[in-house]
Design goal:
The structure holds 2 protein chains of 2 kinds. By secondary structure, chain A is an all-alpha fold. Chain A is built from 10 helices and no strands. Chain A has one domain. Chain B has 13 helices and no strands. Classes of the chains: A mainly alpha, B mainly alpha.
Chain lengths: 265, 265
């Protein structure tokens, strides 16, 4: 419990900062919605003739780009990118920092098993990411509501918010696994930014269509907002893949961390 | 000279990974061109020019002819710049602040070299690394463009784009070095540099969507080298001048503060 509390305390300010970043990012994008909406009327007819590759690039849904929620799906790409960085930072950092800051000896000599340590750290991270998701979702929900007259679909919005949270957990789990497997991580940011942007680049450029098998490679493609808005549900195979990644990464982290050779000072 | 060689060796592995990432991005991005070009003929271009201004800018279409390989590369170019910027800003701040992060600052500073010389050696090493990254990117882009261009002239346009690529590298290297010169906390300097870079990227996206916020263009380095302006004439020479001034000020600041500040030991 002490480890849990300590982690929450240590990461509290960073989390607050990330919440601020996410909220302002979403708000800035939504601020341009009226301009886009004005242009949209003439554009809607033309959009139908776009090649699918172009449409897939930006995640546009032809029918709903003019609604706040549809436009939000476009902003969603950038928001998930930031959210992924936050989660990955947390995942890569939370265990490796003990070795980096030379506090591993201190922690390991306490009467708590390694499994216990990981339990506490995981719980703290999930709580922090959960708080991030909830605050952000409520904030954006209010903004979206204020733009929509009557057509605000709460269920679909909730699905998008949940997708955001699951995505964060996926990235957190990947980061955790990487940090546990690496012998020593000198700096968190280069590692996490590298992985996130690599996956983002695959998502933005290599994936050409909805049936592309490459989509399984990058979590950014697991929850397509346009699909959620159209069908009001997730794509099951990708949801399952995402959950499997979480479970495998976390399990492997436990197994490996228990027998890892932790270097002392 | 020892420091210079040491730094080059220390960055060998990460440089290799970055180069691989860049090759992948250019390859995968231009791979999309073949998909897009197959789908779109001239009617697609016609359609694009009828799009509202805000959306045209967003996609970088209208100005660009998507059936020409070089123009397609121009759209991809913002992302390439983005990758180069991440690399440069993290290199600039990391190469200086890592001494304090890894607690090797004491070791280095008691050697018979002045701080000024240390900084010079480190910056020279950074520029060398950037140059290698630059050449790799140039070579890959050249190869892939000559493959897709089918005899159409692209050398001149590519050269201009790559000149701006180099300028972005230097700009963000100086941003990173500047923050590493100021901040005592090594974590903070990397984070500050990255934050500035991300905000500038976001501003570049916003400046694209909203036409009449022209002053925004001066706030973000990414817009100093807009592929649209570079490839289609109308490039203002104000930008290179501002860039040179910015680099000079930032590097001067880095030297100034680094020589004076306390080290974190």
């Amino acid at each position: 419990m002490n480890v849990f509390r300590q982690e929450c305390k240590m990461n509290f300010r960073t989390t607050l900062l990330w919440i601020l970043v996410l909220c302002s990012l979403g708000a800035v994008f939504m601020a341009f919605f009226p301009i886009i909406q004005r242009d949209m009327k003439t554009f809607l007819k033309l959009l139908d003739n776009f090649p699918p590759a172009m449409k897939a690039l930006m995640g546009i849904v032809t029918e709903s780009f003019s609604t706040p929620l549809g436009y939000y799906s476009f902003a969603f790409t950038f928001v998930t990118l930031s959210g992924a960085i936050q989660a990955m930072n947390l995942g890569v950092g939370i265990v490796s920092k003990e070795t980096r800051d030379k506090t591993a000896d201190f922690l390991m000599t306490k009467p708590i098993s390694r499994t216990g340590i990981l339990h506490a750290k995981l719980a703290a991270s999930v709580v922090l990411l959960g708080i991030t998701g909830i605050v952000y979702s409520v904030f954006m929900g209010i903004i979206l509501r204020s733009y929509s007259v009557s057509d605000f679909d709460l269920k679909k919005y909730a699905l998008e918010c949940l997708a955001f949270f699951i995505l964060q957990i996926i990235f957190f789990a990947i980061g955790l696994l990487v940090s546990v497997f690496a012998r020593k991580i000198k700096a968190v940011l280069p590692v996490s930014l590298g992985i996130v942007f690599f996956l983002y680049a695959i998502s933005a450029f290599a994936v050409t269509s909805a049936s592309d098998k490459l989509r399984f490679l990058t979590p950014f493609q697991y929850f397509k907002p346009d699909y959620i808005i159209k069908n009001g549900q997730y794509e099951i195979s990708y949801l399952v893949t995402g959950l499997c990644i979480i479970i495998i990464c976390v399990l492997a982290s436990y197994i490996w961390f228990r027998r890892k050779d932790v270097h002392s000072v | 000279m020892n420091i210079y060689i040491r730094e080059l060796k220390a960055h060998r592995k990460s440089l290799l990974i970055w180069c691989a990432g860049m090759i992948f991005l250019v390859g995968a991005g231009m791979g999309k061109y073949s998909a897009g070009a197959a789908a779109g003929d001239n009617s697609m271009n016609e359609l694009m020019t009828q799009m509202p201004k805000s959306l045209q800018n967003l996609f970088g279409v209208g100005v660009f002819d998507l059936t020409i390989a070089l123009d397609f590369f121009g759209i991809l170019f913002l992302y390439i710049l983005f990758l180069a910027a991440i690399h440069a800003v993290m290199l600039g701040s990391g190469i200086i602040s890592k001494e304090e992060r890894d607690r090797t600052a004491e070791f280095l500073l008691v050697k018979p070299v002045s701080r000024k010389k240390i900084l010079t050696a480190k910056l020279l090493a950074s520029v060398t690394i950037l140059l290698i990254f630059f050449l790799v990117t140039y070579a890959v882009s050249y190869a892939i463009l000559s493959y897709y261009s089918k005899g159409m002239a692209f050398e001149n346009g590519l050269m201009k784009l790559m000149a701006s690529f180099g300028a972005i590298q230097l700009l963000f290297l100086s941003v990173g070095a500047f923050f590493a010169g100021i901040f005592k906390n090594p974590k903070r300097s990397v984070a500050a540099g990255t934050a500035v870079m991300m905000i500038m990227y976001l501003l570049a996206v916003i400046a694209d969507i909203v036409e009449n916020l022209n002053f925004l263009k001066y706030l973000t380095f990414f817009k100093y080298f807009d592929a649209k302006d570079i490839l289609k004439g109308s490039y203002s020479l104000v930008y290179p001048v501002i860039s040179a001034a910015a680099i000079a000020i930032l590097i001067y600041g880095a030297y100034h503060y680094y020589q004076k500040r306390d080290m974190k030991i």
